[in-house]
Amino acid sequence: MTDLAPDLNAWCASYIDAFMAWDAEAIAAHWTFPALTTQAGRSFTFQSAEHFAKNTTRLLGFYRDQNVARVTRKLISHQVMHADAVSMCVADEMVDADGTLIASWQAAYVLQRVDGVWKAVMAVADGETEAWAARGTPLGGKRS
């Protein structure tokens, strides 16, 4: 079976490029719908790219409020589930303009190859939820 790490690293890099452009629609383009995310013991289903982008726009506002200037994502591991399906674990870091670490966490994704392109189907975001709560800035809570 082909090593998928280069493809997954490229997906991660493209995702971060969309994020660093603060482009919710470009981030949503990395997903197939409906899509599922889990965090803090709850699951959220996004029925369309528009629904996902609307939520992502709010999330990007939260990140701006936290003074996030740069994001990195590193592929930690992956597991081939099928020729066109893979799970992966990534490590994310967010830093301010001075390069000071704001928050870091691990997340898990399930991706499916759709028309030859890798798209996320679901994400487990509990690590991010915990990282922001530890900073006293819980996601979905009052912005500072």
Descriptive notes:
With 144 residues, this protein is an alpha+beta fold. A 6-stranded mixed sheet has the order 2-1-6-5-4-3. The mean pLDDT is 93. It has one domain: Nuclear Transport Factor 2, Chain: A. It has helices at residues 5-20, 24-28, 49-65, 126-134, and strands at residues 31-39, 42-46, 70-82, 85-95, 101-114, 117-124.
Shape: globular
Strand content: 35-45%
- Averaging pLDDT over every residue, what do you get? 93
Overall SS class: alpha+beta
Distance between the termini: 48 Å
CATH class: Alpha Beta
N-to-C SSE string, H for helix and E for strand:
HHEEHEEEEH
**Cross-sheet strand order for the largest sheet:** 2-1-6-5-4-3
Count of DSSP helices? 4
State the domain count.
1
Question: Which helices and strands, and how do they pair?
Answer:
Elements: H1 5-20, H2 24-28, E1 31-39, E2 42-46, H3 49-65, E3 70-82, E4 85-95, E5 101-114, E6 117-124, H4 126-134
Parallel strand pairs: 1-6
Antiparallel strand pairs: 1-2, 3-4, 4-5, 5-6
